[in-house]
Specification:
By secondary structure, the chain is of the alpha/beta class. It has one domain: Rossmann fold (3-Layer(aba) Sandwich), CATH 3.40.50. α6 links the parallel β4 (143-149) and β5 (170-176). It has eleven helices and ten strands. It is 38% helix and 18% strand. The structure holds S-adenosylmethionine (SAM).
Length: 294
Amino acid sequence: MCARQLQMYGGSWTEKKLQILSKYLEAYTKALKNQPFELIYIDAFAGTGYRELPTAGPDDEGTLFAELVEPDPQQFLDGSARMALGISPPFHRYMFIEKSGTRLSELKKLRDSSDLCDRIELKLGDCNDELLDICMNWDWRGQRAVLFLDPFGMQVDWSTIEAVARTRAIDMWILFPISAVNRLLTQSGNIPTKWADRLTNLFGTPTWQEEFYQNAPDGLFGSTGVSRKACDWMDIAGLWNERLRSVFADVADNPRMLHNSTGAPLFLFCFAAANPKGAPIAKRIAGHILEHME
Ligand SMILES: C[S@@+](CC[C@H](N)C(=O)[O-])C[C@H]1O[C@@H](n2cnc3c(N)ncnc32)[C@H](O)[C@@H]1O
């Protein structure tokens, strides 16, 4: 795929997420540059290096393409992988994971043309499989990492989040697909089993049902025991941040809601730190960036 064949976009929510991440990466490598750790940037949905529009496909089930797409494609803009390679001081290593072979071949070109070529590793595969391997099999005592999880939809399993937290070494930025979640939470409470399983897999618990639904009092809605949706965006965001807090050392209290150009919420951009010693300062920096980024 040549860069011209990609449909580029630069909607303000994509701009915002990369600005927030970029600010954090700058602060991170500066703060840790004299520490005895190998610093690694892991991009588990690396894309091509450029920003691009989502295209429907079987792997992207659960994505809300219409809401993700911004009306006016803009100029060629750096995606997360290119942005991360421009951070100064640089990371010691970069790990780019991508499920699509076509997109990975664009990343290969990026690696081969980069001054940091020797520091870049590419992995073709599913982010959950690759991250489980990285989290469980790397020796995290001498390493610290920032992980960026930037899915189009609900691709990240809760077991992956738990594995990241268990490293006690990774700071994680994740786009939580709040719009996709809200859409699966039907008003009637009649949720197809497949959707319910996906929600349970995302939250890592079936308790979302009690949190988001209420049994109607007798006589209402025509029958007894009927459940109705009883949650708003804040409730969904609250449960997700609570779930992160249950496994990470600390979590930013002010995740950023990202909206499309018509004002519809799309993603909640969240930060969690796995290292107990570093978490207070990491949370302070991330919280400051989340609050002050225009
Ligand atoms: C939102 S885009 C990433 C954009 C990129 N972070 C950027 O800023 O340019 C999501 C990417 O994840 C890839 N992807 C989708 N499912 C995946 C999975 N399960 N594991 C790894 N990559 C996946 C898609 O092929 C797509 O390139």
